[in-house]
Design a protein that fits this description.
This protein has an eight-stranded parallel beta barrel with strand order 1-2-3-4-5-6-7-9, surrounded by eight helices. The termini are close together. The chain contains eleven helices and nine strands. It is about 45% helix and about 15% strand. It folds into two domains: about 240 residues, Luciferase-like domain (TIM Barrel, Alpha-Beta Barrel), CATH 3.20.20.30; about 80 residues, no CATH class. By secondary structure, the protein is of the alpha/beta class. Helix 6 links the parallel strand 5 and strand 6. To bacterial alkanal monooxygenase alpha and beta chains. Keywords: Oxidoreductase. It is an enzyme of class 1 (oxidoreductase). It comes from Gracilibacillus xinjiangensis.
């Protein structure tokens, strides 16, 4: 193992992909199986993300899927990466995660985001009000912390007294500033917002204020990795992710589709450029074991991250297991 990897934690981001030709039930079976393997291979935590109105993502009821994964594992940390707090009453999230913490003590993480995790029509269907502004998010975080601390007039039962690590998630500098001010760990979505990664991390580190939760900055970065026996096969597997991004760009979100032999037959030059802008070569690593090791090492050296959370959108479950096991062989 490279010295670069020795002090870094590695974790799994699971979007609970719904595969073309399969059901969400199949997704949840795969998630539990991947989590069991991830625990065995030494991954530190296993996070699921809140998305809505997305045919290819099954983790909309995020706390329920977290419970499913935690019940199928023994010690790996399980949590949300993240809960989109503006979609919810903070009291409800305090109760849900207080319940999770009661069921699986000292294993639950709560990552918070301020985006709706969906389109505007879905945001309208989800939200209690559409008159919110970015300034509301810090107040919602404060309120949520108050329920866990037991300082709010209304008590979260379960929830009050829970010692659940709260993370702030972001793809710009807004949450970086807030995480620094509140002394919280910060997870940056570099796997889909690569251009803002380094400025946001710099902002967080330079303005960090110690808190009772954290005495120094702690940074997690996201990266897409598809590892296979050969780079050619990894590139072929990656066409599933490319198709999913392409369909999103076209305004027709889809299930995760099987790999195809010639992606250039599917997109035009402008669509290709748009997909490749999102699936950036620095934060999307596709290749054999040697390629993954070299590019991941460069990414960690550049970001100086404390932890890396890995997303692997791969259609075939055995290929997905192989990819995560290969990464574990490199870094653990």
């Amino acid at each position: 193992m490279s010295q670069v990897f020795s002090n870094i934690k590695f974790s799994v981001l699971d979007l609970a992909p719904v595969l073309e030709g399969h059901t969400p039930s199949h997704s949840f079976t795969n998630s539990a199986d991947l989590a069991r393997h991830a625990e065995e291979w030494g991954y530190h935590r296993y996070w699921l993300a809140e998305h809505h109105n997305m045919p290819g993502i099954a983790s909309s009821a995020t706390s329920l899927v977290i419970s499913h994964v935690a019940s199928n594992t023994k010690k790996i940390r399980v949590g949300a990466g993240g809960i989109m707090l503006p979609n919810h009453a903070p009291l409800v999230i305090a109760e849900q995660f207080g319940t999770l913490d009661s069921l699986y003590p000292n294993r639950i993480d709560l990552g918070l985001g301020r985006a709706p995790g969906s389109d505007q029509a879905t945001a309208y269907a989800l939200r209690r009000t559409l008159n919110s502004s970015p300034e509301d998010f810090p107040l919602q975080v404060d309120e949520l912390e108050g329920y866990f601390a037991g300082t709010e007039r209304v008590k979260a039962i379960p929830g009050k007294g829970s010692n659940i690590p709260i993370w702030l998630l972001g793809s710009s500098d807004f949450s970086a500033k807030l995480a620094a001010k509140k002394g919280m760990p910060f997870a940056f979505a570099s796997h889909f917002s690569p251009d803002y990664t380094l400025p946001a991390l710099r902002m967080y580190r330079e303005h960090f204020q110690p808190s009772t939760q954290l005495d120094k900055p702690y940074v997690m970065v996201g990266v897409n990795i598809i590892a296979a026996e050969t780079t050619d096969r990894a590139k072929w597997l990656a066409t599933s992710t490319q198709q999913q991004f392409l369909n999103l760009i076209r305004g027709a979100p889809s299930e995760l589709m099987p790999p195809i032999d010639d992606i250039d037959r599917v997109w035009n030059v402008y669509e290709k450029a748009s997909v490749e802008k999102n699936i950036n070569s620095k934060t999307t690593i596709v290749g054999d074991k040697k390629t993954v090791q070299e590019k991941l090492q460069l990414f960690i050296e550049e970001t100086k991250a404390d932890e890396v959370i890995i997303n692997g959108q791969i259609y075939n479950h055995d290929d997905r297991l192989y990819s995560y096991q290969t990464i574990a062989d490199i870094v653990m």
